[in-house]
Write a structure and sequence with these properties.
CATH topology of the largest domain: Immunoglobulin-like
Number of helices: 2
Oligomer: single chain
CATH class of the largest domain: Mainly Beta
Largest sheet: 5 strands, mixed
Number of domains: 5
CATH architecture of the largest domain: Sandwich
CATH superfamily of the largest domain: Immunoglobulins
Radius of gyration: 64 Å
Number of strands: 36
């Protein structure tokens, strides 16, 4: 309770820990001239401290959220693609012996591999891929690795056998032996043929190869560049026998280090004979001058060495034969033919009878006619000309040499029967009595009536 005495003392009471004059302490009395009023700040309340602490906490949480979101929004670095290749897929050991799983990783990638035995009672494996035979039997080692977040795996098979003194088992690879990484050697040679040269025989390709690891396989494909279907080489030979051009690709593979060597060889086979056509195509060729005969060649496989083979004959020759050859050495001969050389030109002569029939006599000619085109062979012709004329005749021999002859024809006209101011060639008997046989073209003769017919002149022909 505030009293007058308290006021005189210049102090303020504090009840129950609370400031009754807003926490300001002052001397109200006994002030001298040098008095300076002193003001003291009120201490911060507990609510203010809480607010500051909450603000600081929110700032810290915001900073943490910012960095977390930034990290989540960053693009993940893609993992490099690679391929793990086992250099061989299995091995055979005896109990107590070891072999090592060898592998390659492409793109020089760094990868962690783990090795796990499917049956440790048969074979165990350590972290370095060293396999130890424990008991007789077959099992496999799982080779695991991770690529692009996905687990990958390959199986390595192991065969473990008992220890026996007589058994000499070939192991793949030999125990604790380093595998050579050299590619195998490969050689191709041809028997009785040359590469890329036509032949008319079967072609044998001799194949030889060698592997440092004594593990070699030989395969081949014909006329194939990619995605080929290969066949095994038998007895180190490949035989090609059909007509055509073939490119043979041979692949030698080392089955332990998987290295390959590839070689190619081209062979050409043509066993068919060419076809032959003679020009002129005659068994007997007759001519008045030198004769050139050609053999025309055709070949569908290797082609002809020469498209045609020709020979000129200056004199008569019998049983002549021409031959054509293709690029593989196959040949075809023509039928035998005779050449008859007659260097005398073809001749002809003409004669004519009274009725105008002209007859031709021909010598050394194969074509003859009254027509200059020699369309058909004709030796006779009857003319009906009423005045003098010249008739020509044409001949030609087998060589194409032509000749001509002609005849100068004289025509004589005669009026056999004249009646009624006209000429007639003939008379015809008619059935008329004498008293009625009195027409201008009729006459009574030898007790019968005749009529003049075939009006016109009678022409006779002769050579001038």
């Amino acid at each position: 309770m505030y009293t007058e005495d308290d006021e005189k003392k210049g102090s303020v009471n504090v009840n129950n820990g609370q400031d009754t004059n807003d926490s300001i302490y002052s001397d109200f009395y006994n002030k001298d001239d040098n008095y300076t009023e002193e003001v003291v700040e009120k201490p911060k309340s507990k609510n203010t401290i809480k607010i500051i602490a909450i603000l600081l906490l929110l700032i810290i949480v915001g900073v943490l959220v910012f960095f977390v979101l930034k990290k989540n929004n960053q693009e993940p670095t893609p993992q490099q693609n690679f391929e793990v290749t086992l250099l061989y897929s299995d091995c055979s050991v005896k109990v107590g012996e070891q072999c090592t799983i060898l592998y390659e990783v492409s793109n020089q990638a760094q990868v962690d591999l783990t090795f796990t035995s499917n049956d440790p009672n048969i074979a165990t494996v350590d972290n370095n891929g060293v396999v130890t035979g424990i008991g007789e039997g077959n099992t496999f080692i799982k080779v695991n690795y991770s690529m692009n977040g996905k687990n990958q795996g390959k199986d390595f098979f192991v065969t473990v056998s008992k220890q026996t003194e007589q058994q000499q088992e070939q192991q793949k690879p030999p125990v604790n032996q380093t595998i050579s990484q050299n590619a195998p050697s490969l050689s191709l040679t041809l028997s009785d043929a040359k590469e890329n040269v036509w032949t008319n025989k079967d072609v044998t390709i001799n194949v030889s190869g060698k592997s440092d690891n004594n593990s070699l396989s030989l395969k081949y494909a014909i006329n194939c560049e990619s995605n080929c279907s290969y066949q095994n080489v038998s007895n180190n030979k490949i035989v090609v026998s059909n007509n055509g051009t073939y490119t043979v690709k041979v692949v030698a593979t080392d089955n332990k280090n998987k290295k390959e060597t590839t070689k190619k060889v081209t062979v050409k086979i043509d066993k068919e004979k060419p076809t032959l056509t003679l020009n002129p195509n005659q068994i007997k060729i007759t001519s008045t001058k030198n004769v050139t005969v050609c053999a025309i060649c055709a070949d569908k496989v290797s082609g002809c060495k020469e498209d045609k083979v020709c020979k000129t004959y200056p004199a008569s020759s019998s049983k002549q034969v021409l031959k054509v050859v293709d690029n593989a050495g196959n040949s075809t001969s023509s039928v035998a033919f005779d050449v008859v050389i007659n260097k005398v030109k073809p001749t002809c002569s003409l004669s004519i009878s009274n009725d105008g029939t002209i007859t031709a006599t021909v010598k050394d000619a194969t074509k003859y006619s009254f027509d200059a085109n020699l369309a058909s062979n004709v030796t006779t012709k009857k003319i009906t000309n009423t005045s003098d004329t010249i008739v020509n005749y044409y001949v030609m021999d087998a060589s194409g040499t032509k000749g001509t002859c002609s005849i100068n024809v004289k025509v004589t006209s005669t009026c056999r029967y004249r009646a009624g101011g006209a000429c007639y060639k003939d008379m015809a008997k008619i059935n008329l009595d004498k008293d009625k046989c009195n027409g201008s073209v009729m006459t009574w003769s030898n007790g019968a009536c005749y009529m003049y017919v075939n009006q016109g002149m009678i022409y006779t022909y002769s050579k001038k």
